[in-house]
Amino acid sequence: MQGEAGAKSYLVAPNNTVQLWDSEQNVIYLKSADASGMPSIKILDYTIRQEAPKTPVDALKTETKGNPYQDEFNALQGQIDALKREIEELKGNEQ
């Protein structure tokens, strides 16, 4: 597709939308036709990124080392072990 003139001359079936990529510029044309076949065009400019931006989730992954809940897990595991020992002691006293 070459330029806006090419996009305007492109035929689109009624109730359809097509993407037309310009071969000369960083432009995408979204051409639609309503039920009666009346066309409309939306023109989008795009840029190519050299490097993907860092998302907040990626930043968290690099900042935290290991599982952030590991300390809480270990504390709970210690409490469970202590309760198990108490239960075993109570069972031993009943016999």
What summary fits the major beta sheet? 3 strands, antiparallel
Seen as an oligomer or otherwise, the chain set is single chain
Write down the overall mean pLDDT. Answer: 87
User: How many structural units, i.e. domains?
Assistant: 2
* Low-confidence blocks of residues: none
Put simply, the count of helices is: 3
Helical proportion, percent range: 40-55%
The largest sheet has its strands arranged as: 1-2-3
The beta-strand count equals 3
Radius of gyration: 32 Å
* Fraction in beta strands: 15-25%
Head-to-tail CA distance between termini: 89 Å
The ordered H/E elements are: HEEEHH
Q: What's the shape? A: elongated
Q: Which class of secondary structure composition applies to the elements?
A: alpha+beta
Characterise the protein shown here:
By secondary structure, the chain is α+β, with helices and mostly antiparallel strands. It folds into two domains: 3-45, no CATH class; 56-94. The protein is 42% helix and 21% strand. The chain is built from three helices and three strands. The protein has helices at residues 3-9, 56-63, 70-94; strands at 16-21, 27-33, 39-45. A three-stranded antiparallel β-sheet has the order 1-2-3, with helices on one face. 3% of the residues are buried. The mean pLDDT is 87.
